[in-house]
Amino acid sequence: MISKRKLTGPFILALTLHVLLLSVFMLSFDSKSPVFETGPAPEIIEAMVIDESLIQAEAERLKTQQNKLLESQRQMEEAKRQEDEKLKQQQLVEQQKKMAAEQLKAEQLAAEKRKAEEVAKQKAEAERVAAEKRKADEAAKQKAAADKLKAEQLAAEKRKAEEAAKQKAEAERVAAEKRKAEETAKQKAAADKLKAEQLAAEKRKAEETAKQKAAADKLKAEQLAAEKRKAEEAAKQKAEAERVAAEKRKADEAAKQKAASEKVKAEQLAAEKRKAEEAAKQKAEAERIAAEKRKADEAAKQKAASEKVKAEQLAAEKRKAEEAAKQKAEAERIAAEKRKADEAAKQKAASEKVKAEQLAAEKRKAEEAAKQKAEAERVAAEKRKAEEAAKQKAAAEKLKAEQLAAEKRKAEEAAKQKAEADRLAAEKRKAEEAAKRAAEEKRKAEEAAAEKRRQEELARQKAEAEKREAERLSELARQQAEKLRQEDEARKQAAAAAEEARKQAEAKRQQELSDAKNKAIAEIRNKVERSWIRPVSSQGQLKCTIRVNLLSDGSVMDASVVSSSGDPAFDRSAENAVKKASPLTFPRELYASFKSFTFVFCPGC
Hints:
Elements: H1 2-28, H2 52-225, H3 229-392, H4 394-531, E1 544-550, E2 556-563, H5 568-580, H6 591-594, E3 596-601
Antiparallel strand pairs: 1-2, 1-3
């Protein structure tokens, strides 16, 4: 359309110029030319003389008309140039508007892309937060399960410890009851034996009293009967005394044999008792070993269970770490795909931009070719016109030369303006490219900083998780150590309590034995005092210490004063009283203490 307009103007001008020239020539040869009548006439050569002033005036007129035409042509060309300039400015404005619209569209697309990326980032962040929340929930559930399992284990161990303590207390109670029953049986047996011995002693004492009474009656009867038989009685008494001594020796021998047999029997009973106690101890030791073995088995089972739980926890943590690694790899893959898509979009935008620039360059090239063609056609037309004008007058050539020079200057000016516009457009594009590159670099830097912050956050969370896990394992180890310490302390306390109970029982038994011994010595002292006959020569409050040697049945083997009262008669009466009080009663389990003992004899003290 533009080239068509450019060709139409010169064509109209050329046509107008030809019409004007024809009109001038027609007018110059119209009414001024003479009219010749037709008819026969002689053959005459006619000549027309034209005035030089008329020719000059006509030339001036033609020159004026030509100047007017040239001025009109210049005005038309100026109007056309202005119209072309206006059209170019409109095209430039339209192109700038188009470029601005494209840039705005590109910016909108970039904004939408950034918005989509922000939405994707927010979505990824939300998914990451949700994943972390799920992970935290899973960790909390696992921790709660582990705490519950640990609490159940602690409760089971506590119940087991309570059961063991109950069983131990029950065993100790049974053993105490058994010992108490044995002690009661022993005390009952000792009491029965003591009672029997007391009855036997009383019977023997009654018999001795009866014998003494009978002997006194007999002695009185014999004393009253006659002193004649005194010598015979003395002989009989001597014989009786010898017989009694022989019987006593015989009884002593029998008592010694009986004591030896009883001692052997007691030793056998003691050996059997020790054997039974050893068997009981071995049985208790075997039960204790079995209990410890069961406890060790339970501990091993619990340890295996805790190790299994720990292994499951480690496996769960490993799976969790693998899931985190997978998620991280997936996130990295998505980020790589995103970067790849961004690169592809950038490359596509760049290729589209290059294509648009190529199209614009081709368009400009076509326009330049069209301009050059139009210019060539115009130059050809002007050349033809110049040739026509040169045929008419040299002034037209000069005018044409001036027009060509003006057009050349105009073309150069247009070329300069175009070059300046291209330079400005190039600088603008360069500035836009630089701004885009800066924006892209800024966006990349922001993304890198965001990625760095995310990685640092992940590293921090991982470090915190590892720290929490280390603290949890440390707390678990501390709790296990505390549990072992408490168990050890409980065992020590139980052992100390058992030892204290044993010591208390031993002290109680020793106190009971001491009380029984003191009671038995008091009873022996009372019995000896009852059997004592005060010597006539003994006066005042006297006392002496007597050592007594007994057999296992209480028979007095020997009685001797180890700390004299200062009165021999009192000392001998005390020894005789001890021998007379034989057999002495004492607890049979204290025979070792009464086999040889001392006591203070102080009648009436």
